[in-house]
Amino acid sequence: MNPIRTSLAGAALLTLAACASTEPAAPADPPPPAVSPEVAAMYGAVDDNGHHIPAIDPHLLIGDKTRQVVDYWSDEKPGTIIVDPHARYLYQVQRGNKAMRYAVAVGAAGYGFTGVAHIPYQRDWPSWKPTDNMFATQPELYGPVEAGLEGGIDNPMGARALYLHNGRGDTYYRIHGTMDPASIGQATSAGCIRLFNQDIIHLAGQTGSMTKVIVLSEAESGKGTVPSGQPMPQPAMTATDQTGGTT
C-alpha cells in the first residue's frame, strides 16, 4: 500500500474524529411542564367500556385547557350547558355564579348553529360516518371510511357524543370527544364541538336527558364571564380562524 495514501487516510480519519468530538450535542427534549397531582389524575389514562384512553400529554394541559370551576354569571338553572364557540369554551352552569369550564376545539360545523336546543340522548363510543359533502370534497381522505367507523379510540366522535335537538328536530350539532387531543383549544376544519375524551366523559356524567343547551353567536361571545352591565371581553378568535387548524 502506498505509504503516502495511508498517511493521508489516517490524517483524514483523525480530522473527522476531532470534528465529531467537538460537534455540540443535539439539544435534549424539553421536560414536560409540571402539572398538579389533581390535574394529572383528571387527565390520566382511563379504561372505559373496553376502550383504553391514553393519558393526555402534559404539554397539552398548559394555559386554560384543563376543566375548572370559574366565575360565571347566568340566570340559567344549574346543569345548563352554554357553548361559546368563538372563545373555544363550554360552560356548565353551577350555583353561586359559577360554572365548570371545558376547553373545546371547534370545527366548521361548530359555527352552523346558534340558539337554544336540548339533549334528548347521548351515546357512549358512538359510530361515525363521513357526510356526503366530506366524501365529495375529499374522497382521497374519506373514501377508505365511507361506510363508517365503529366506536373506538380512532373514531372522530371519541368516547361520548351529546346530540342536540330543537323544535324542528335534530340540529345535527354534536358535542363529543376527539381522536386528536392536540386539537383542543384550536379551530379545526371538521366536526362540531369536541373535548378531551376525559372531559367529555366527565361532562356526559353530569348531563341528564333534555338538558338545555345554549350556543352563543359571535356577538354574544364572552357572555357570562363578567357581571351584568360590564363590557364583555373581546373574543379570542377572529373570523379568519374559523377555517384554520387540523381536521
UniProtKB/TrEMBL annotation:
<keyword id="KW-0732">Signal</keyword>
<feature type="compositionally biased region" description="Polar residues">
    <location>
        <begin position="237"/>
        <end position="247"/>
    </location>
</feature>
<dbReference type="GO" id="GO:0008360">
    <property type="term" value="P:regulation of cell shape"/>
</dbReference>
<dbReference type="Pfam" id="PF03734">
    <property type="entry name" value="YkuD"/>
</dbReference>
<dbReference type="GO" id="GO:0071555">
    <property type="term" value="P:cell wall organization"/>
</dbReference>
<feature type="active site" description="Proton donor/acceptor">
    <location>
        <position position="176"/>
    </location>
</feature>
<protein>
    <submittedName>
        <fullName>Lipoprotein-anchoring transpeptidase ErfK/SrfK</fullName>
    </submittedName>
</protein>
<comment type="pathway">
    <text>Cell wall biogenesis; peptidoglycan biosynthesis.</text>
</comment>
<keyword id="KW-0961">Cell wall biogenesis/degradation</keyword>
<dbReference type="GO" id="GO:0005576">
    <property type="term" value="C:extracellular region"/>
</dbReference>
<keyword id="KW-0449">Lipoprotein</keyword>
<keyword id="KW-0378">Hydrolase</keyword>
<dbReference type="GO" id="GO:0018104">
    <property type="term" value="P:peptidoglycan-protein cross-linking"/>
</dbReference>
<feature type="active site" description="Nucleophile">
    <location>
        <position position="192"/>
    </location>
</feature>
<dbReference type="InterPro" id="IPR038063">
    <property type="entry name" value="Transpep_catalytic_dom"/>
</dbReference>
<dbReference type="GO" id="GO:0071972">
    <property type="term" value="F:peptidoglycan L,D-transpeptidase activity"/>
</dbReference>
<comment type="similarity">
    <text>Belongs to the YkuD family.</text>
</comment>
<feature type="region of interest" description="Disordered">
    <location>
        <begin position="222"/>
        <end position="247"/>
    </location>
</feature>
<feature type="domain" description="L,D-TPase catalytic">
    <location>
        <begin position="79"/>
        <end position="216"/>
    </location>
</feature>
<dbReference type="InterPro" id="IPR050979">
    <property type="entry name" value="LD-transpeptidase"/>
</dbReference>
<feature type="signal peptide">
    <location>
        <begin position="1"/>
        <end position="20"/>
    </location>
</feature>
<keyword id="KW-0573">Peptidoglycan synthesis</keyword>
<keyword id="KW-0133">Cell shape</keyword>
<keyword id="KW-0808">Transferase</keyword>
<keyword id="KW-0328">Glycosyltransferase</keyword>
<dbReference type="GO" id="GO:0016757">
    <property type="term" value="F:glycosyltransferase activity"/>
</dbReference>
<dbReference type="InterPro" id="IPR005490">
    <property type="entry name" value="LD_TPept_cat_dom"/>
</dbReference>
